[in-house]
Amino acid sequence: MKKIILIFFLVGVSLNSYSQKKNSEGGPSLDDFGRIGFFTDIVTNDPDFDGRALEKVKKGLERMLLKESMGKSVDDRFGLVAVPIIYSKEKTSTTPPKYFYEFGVDIIAVDYKEKTKYGVYTYDGLTGMNANSQRALMSGLKGFKTNRGFTDFVREMKQKIIDFYESNCDFILTDAETNASNDEFDNALSILSGVPTVCKECYDRAQEKSREVYMQKLERECQALVAEANSLIAAEEWEGAAGVLKKVLPGISCHAEAVALIQKVETHWCGVNLGKAKGFQQAKDFNQAAQFLALVPTTSACADDADALGKKIYGELTAKEQQDWEFKMKKYNDEMSIEQRNFDFSVNKFERGADRQDRSMELEDKRLNRSLDLEGKAMDYALETTKIIQSSLIEVQKAKSNKTITENKNWSFLGLEF
């Protein structure tokens, strides 16, 4: 339990900082997790419904769901599919001629994973006229907005989804476990996070399982990072290895192995920069010596030697040169801060992490003990860790949405002719 507390304590800041950002791709936000949500799609085979008219249907459906306080779908399982259907089309004999449309929009609720239809709500009697066919359709879509019938339809679909989760909770958890056993951790977490909070028993079980899966994910990622770092070190790509090792979190089982590799990287980089600094010191090129001394990791084994060399150089300088030396050292420290962070990152930070581990575990013990004495407070910790997991999933979904090629959904199970 304390290991889990440490992991979430350390990763919470970075993940939660991301979760506060808006999802520019229109995907789920942190607030969507735990709520019943629908994805939306528009399908039609009518060439008249295109471009701006089709986009107006899509935006209209999204606004209607927003007014119903519906979240975004977190796993693309349950959705609402809008199907515009033109009943009649006429072209007047006036000058200029105008297009007159009578049409409707079917809203079909689906479980896309199971390829089943949950229900249909139809907007009938939409009409529009304009000299431009697209504008005629768009004028008719003014009536495509939320109403009592649509609200009742959404409420009915929500209840069907709740019934689904309550009846199939064991299958959902098994599906997530299967994905996790195949190292499909993000899929497993997405499945578990799709359980809405209103299904309390299943939701609680899913969140407990999600914490287990998240720990498995971190363990596997740690092993992969250490293996990658070993390969880079073997190829003497020290900077690349350092960048990889920075991603290893304290509290994971392979953390000790990562620390050993970190020390190896620091020892190498320490020797390289101190050696160059000594060479320039002997050549009386104190400017270059200062530059490489600034790159010696302060947590490395030769940090004291670097400090001693700096003091030796400083003692050989005149008062004016000492002022210049201090200025240059500060300048190099500032200029090299980004490069230095690639290497001066390791033991000191991990030691601070260990100190935080002791303090955080003591603090969490007190918090949990105090929470157990107060009804409902024991859920605080679970809710915070759940937010961290969900924030991580937002990053995954953002990465998926950035792919240039997206798979179109197959709606043949709806029996529609496209």
Outline the secondary-structure elements.
Blueprint: H1 2-19, E1 37-42, H2 51-67, E2 71-72, E3 78-91, E4 99-111, E5 116-130, H3 133-140, H4 148-181, H5 185-193, H6 200-234, H7 238-245, H8 255-282, H9 286-293, H10 303-315, H11 319-335, H12 337-341, H13 347-372, H14 379-401
Parallel strand pairs: 1-2, 1-3
Antiparallel strand pairs: 3-4, 4-5
Number of helices: 14
Gyration radius, in Å: 30 Å
Helix-strand makeup class:
alpha/beta
Q: Estimate the global geometry from the Cα principal axes.
A: elongated
Distance between the termini: 54 Å
Percent range for β-strand residues:
5-15%
CATH topology of the domain at 35-146: Double Stranded RNA Binding Domain
Estimated helix fraction:
55-70%
Mean pLDDT: 75
Low-confidence stretches: 1-24, 342-368, 370-378, 402-406
Largest sheet: 5 strands, mixed
Give the SSE string: HEHEEEEHHHHHHHHHHHH
The CATH class of the domain at 35-146, by name, is Alpha Beta
CATH architecture of the domain at 35-146: 2-Layer Sandwich
Give me the side-by-side strand order of the main sheet: 2-1-3-4-5
Number of strands: 5
